[in-house]
Amino acid sequence: MLSETSSTGLTTLAAVDFAERLAAREPVPGGGGAAALVGALGAALASMVANYTVGKPRYAAVEADVRLALAQAERIRHELFVLVDEDARAYGLVSAAYALPREDPARADAVEAALHEAALPPYRT
Fold first, then answer.
1. Is the pLDDT of residue 4 over 70?
2. Separation between Cα atoms, residue 24 and residue 106, nearest integer Å
3. Which domain, by its residues, includes 69?
4. Which residues touch 106 (CB under 8 Å, ≥6 apart)?
């Protein structure tokens, strides 16, 4: 289950700082986190359009639909922000599993479990 709070703080970075970290020779943030962030920005744009539409007499006939779309866009935006940090956290599990000694009999299972966990944030994105 995904946490409701940021575990790595990537979503608290300024856009320029996030991009700098993404460009660096560091494993996180990576493609999964970047994809989630871009998705969150897309959902934010959908919210912006809905917010400009709600309450306008011209669009009264579709007000209920727009309010529903706004609620959905906000839910998605928040979930995607969580997934930015969840992707980084999951990579940490993979890194830790691969750091186990090769002769450790539990290593293969740990790597498999970590890879499964690491696939979840991009899948959910």
1. no
2. 32
3. 10-124
4. 100
CATH of the domain at 58: 1.20.120.680
31 CB-near residues (< 8 Å, 6+ apart):
122
Give the number of domains in the chain: 1
Q: Give phi and psi for 5, each to the nearest 5.
A: -120, 160
Residue 4 domain flag = no
Whether 118 is covered by a domain: the verdict is yes
Angle of helix 31-53 relative to helix 63-98, nearest 10 degrees, comes to 170
Q: Tell me the pTM.
A: 0.84
Residue 51 CA to residue 74 CA, distance in Å, equals 11
- Write the single-letter amino acid at 91: Y
Largest CA-CA distance found in the chain, in angstroms, rounded: 70
Query: Prior bond to 122 cis, omega within 30?
Result: no
Whether 40 contacts 81, CB under 8 Å = yes
Span 32-84, pLDDT tens digits: 999 999 999 999 999 999 999 999 999 999 999 999 999 999 999 999 999 99
Residue with tokens 């779309």: 69
